[in-house]
Amino acid sequence: MQREQQTRSDLNAQQANTARAKAALVAAELGIKTLEAQLKSADASLEQAQAQLDQAKLNLQYTDIKADQSGRVVKLSGAVGMFATPGQSLMMFVPDEKWVVANYKETQLKDMRPGQPVEVRIDAYPGRKLTGHIDSVQPGSGTAFSLLPAENATGNFVKVVQRVPVKIVIDNWPTDLPVGPGMSVVPWTRVR
């Protein structure tokens, strides 16, 4: 009888140990699922951090300003370390390539063609005459491409001769003539 009680006691102990082991197994399986969920969350956080790093690198590339052509920076309002908002003007750039835009009356364009010779006198240098050629004639008047084009919605019509921009390239620009945007010139074009 004592042996039977001992065996029963051992059996109960073993069953209790088995139940504890099964509970520990279930807890471990739940722990694995929890850790797998945490791993997925950590992977997602890593991907998000990598995307933020990639965006920061891209934004950093936007802070380096490079000109497509040689020229001079004028009217500089930006500085190293300054924060700039999109669309904010930081400087003005004047390219080294020089040309003249002459606004001819549309009635003067009949025989003008690219390649025709042009003489140019600059008001700042009255004794100098430069030679060049017509590079292009804009396909429309200056007002048609302005920020606020004139509109006549009243029905009143007054014919006004329009001005059309003509780009003139100087063949050999003298190095001793410092010029810049907005200076006044007088062009003469020989038409055929």
Spatial strand sequence of the major β-sheet: 3-6-5-4-7
- Can you identify the CATH superfamily of the largest domain? Efflux pump adaptor protein, beta barrel domain
Q: Into which percent range does the helicity of residues fall?
A: 25-40%
For the record, the CATH architecture of the largest domain stands as: Beta Barrel
SSE topology string: HEEEEEEE
Low-confidence stretches: none
Structural class: alpha+beta
* Total domain count: 3
Outline type: rod-shaped
Terminal residue distance? 135 Å
Any idea of the CATH class of the largest domain? Mainly Beta
Number of helices: 1
Strand content: 15-25%
Query: What's the total count of β strands?
Result: 7
Mean pLDDT: 85
The CATH topology of the largest domain is given as Elongation Factor Tu (Ef-tu), domain 3
Biggest sheet record: 5 strands, antiparallel
User: For the CA atoms, what is the radius of gyration?
Assistant: 40 Å
Structural features:
alpha+beta; 192 residues; Elongation Factor Tu (Ef-tu), domain 3; rod-shaped; 3 domains; 7 strands
In short:
The protein has 192 residues and is α+β, with helices and mostly antiparallel strands.
Describe it for me?
With 192 residues, this protein is an alpha+beta fold. It has 3 domains: 1-64; 66-96, no CATH class; 98-189, Efflux pump adaptor protein, beta barrel domain (Elongation Factor Tu (Ef-tu), domain 3, Beta Barrel), CATH 2.40.30. 32% of the residues lie in helices and 24% in strands. It contains 1 helix and 7 strands; from the N terminus they run αβββββββ. The strands form 2 sheets. Strands 3-6-5-4-7 form a 5-stranded antiparallel beta sheet, with no helix packed on it. A two-stranded antiparallel sheet has the order 1-2. The longest helix has 61 residues, at 2-62. It is rod-shaped, with a radius of gyration of 40 Å. 5% of the residues are buried. The model has no long low-confidence stretch (mean pLDDT 85).
